[in-house]
Amino acid sequence: MFLLSALVIVFLIVISVRPSVIASGSPLTCDLAKAREGAGPGHPFGYDGQGCDVYTRTVYGARASVTVGVLATLGVAVLGSVLGGLAGYFGGLWDSVLSRITDIFFAIPVVLGGLVLLSVVTSNTVWPVIGFMVLLGWPQISRIARGAVITAKQHDYVQAARALGASDARILLRHITPNAVAPVIVVSTIALGTYIALEATLSYLGVGLKPPSVSWGIDISAASPYIRNSPHALLWPSGALAVTVLAFIMLGDAVRDALDPKLR
């Protein structure tokens, strides 16, 4: 499972960095005379409703999805781990306040929040989408990090370090973090696929990435009205999205099995 998902992810990263390796054309080059045509020589996926090559757009669409997924996951993991780790270690008022804040964020539906917050954004870049995902995604990681730190700080090696006069910063960085980071890594890896799917959903609804950006969600949205007459324009970007999300979820499961001694 790990090898299969890793191969798919490495391939996605390669085409995200250098899509021209397997796609020589431009995703923005379109010919209305070829709109909704099927597969042909040099165009194995056919054309979409605007006469754009579906194969080229599917390849270039990986860049936006992987970029959003990776950066959003990093942002969520760092912010959630820091806030949750501090709350779990120090407890008291800080822990109580953070717990109530996370409860508020958990009550916000993600898609509805995206429709409200991103509908006023006019930027065509990935940064507003990444910022939104970090804003609503950190509470999950925060709770996991908090629980892991609370468990780790009860161990004897932490008590011994404190008895020897180690500072709070040293205990957190040298003793607690290495032993509490495993569940954060597992959940973050699985969540990466979720963020990719969320980006496609928001782009499909018209509040995520916007044209002329190239995204699987944008292409799926544009091809939806022609699904009965030209299903190829919808199936290929949808299939690429499904394979990508599945690969990251499989990788997360494999990492969980590797890091959890109870599952070995």
Could you describe the 3D structure shown?
The chain has one domain (2-16, 45-259): MetI-like (MetI-like fold, Orthogonal Bundle), CATH 1.10.3720. The chain contains 9 helices and no strands. The mean pLDDT is 89. The protein is 70% helix and 0% strand. The protein is mainly α and 264 residues long. α1 packs across α2 (54-90), α2 packs parallel to α5 and α5 (127-152) packs antiparallel against α7 (168-204). The chain crosses the membrane at residues 66-89, 101-120, 180-198, 234-255.
Topology at a glance:
Blueprint: H1 2-17, H2 54-90, H3 92-106, H4 110-118, H5 127-152, H6 156-163, H7 168-204, H8 216-223, H9 232-259
Highlighted features:
single chain, 264 residues, MetI-like fold, 9 helices, elongated, MetI-like_sf, transport, MetI-like, transmembrane helix, BP-dependent_transpt_permease
Instruction: Count structural domains.
Output: 1
Overall shape = elongated
Radius of gyration: 22 Å
Strand content: under 5%
* Oligomeric composition of the shown chains: single chain
Number of DSSP helical runs = 9
Count the E strands: 0
The biggest sheet, with number of strands, parallel, antiparallel or mixed sense and barrel status, is: none
- CATH homologous superfamily - what is it? MetI-like
Helicity, as a percent range: 55-70%
Output the structural class: mainly alpha
CATH architectural designation? Orthogonal Bundle
| Mean model confidence by pLDDT | 89
User: Low-confidence parts lasting 5 or more residues at pLDDT below 50?
Assistant: none
CATH third-level topology = MetI-like fold
- The CATH class designation is Mainly Alpha
Main location: membrane
GO cellular component, one term: plasma membrane
Domain ABC transmembrane type-1: 62-252
Pfam family, one: BPD_transp_1
